[in-house]
Design a protein that fits this description.
The protein has about 100 residues and is mostly helical. It has a domain at about 30-90: Recoverin, domain 1. Helices cover about 50% and strands about 5% of the residues. The protein is built from four helices and two strands, in the order αβααβα. It has helices at about 10-25, 35-45, 50-60, 70-80, and strands at about 35, 65-70. Helix 1 packs across helix 4 and helix 2 (about 35-45) packs across helix 3 (about 50-60). It is globular, with a radius of gyration of 14 Å. The N and C termini lie far apart (about 35 Å).
Length: about 100
């Protein structure tokens, strides 16, 4: 049986390597952090409304310094894929998810 990419033993080498490359591509001014404009622009290209991506940005900016650091981005990716806590900041990576009521 093949192991799952999101299993803890494979996660870093598979998913976080892609996350690191994505962060580098999104960091258009190459200052090592994601600013709100960079984050919102990426999600706008995917059809996600700016109000959702702006809210997600605020949630992922854990230290409230106005940027998403490399570590904050990696933490968000880990939460998005591995956390069962629907309120975890990383689970807002792409904005709100409509949950069945």
């Amino acid at each position: 049986m093949k192991s799952n990419v999101t299993s803890p033993e494979n996660f870093e080498s598979a998913v976080l390597a892609i996350a690191d490359a994505l962060m580098s591509a999104l960091d258009t001014n190459q200052d090592g952090v994601l600013e709100s404009q960079e984050y919102v622009q990426m999600y706008s290209a995917l059809g996600i409304p700016p109000e959702h991506s702006s809210d997600a940005f605020r949630r992922l900016d854990r230290d409230n310094d106005g940027t998403i650091s490399h570590e904050e981005f990696r933490t968000a990716i880990c939460e998005f894929y591995l956390s069962d806590d629907e309120d975890a900041s990383g689970n807002w990576l792409i904005g709100p998810i409509n949950r069945p009521t």
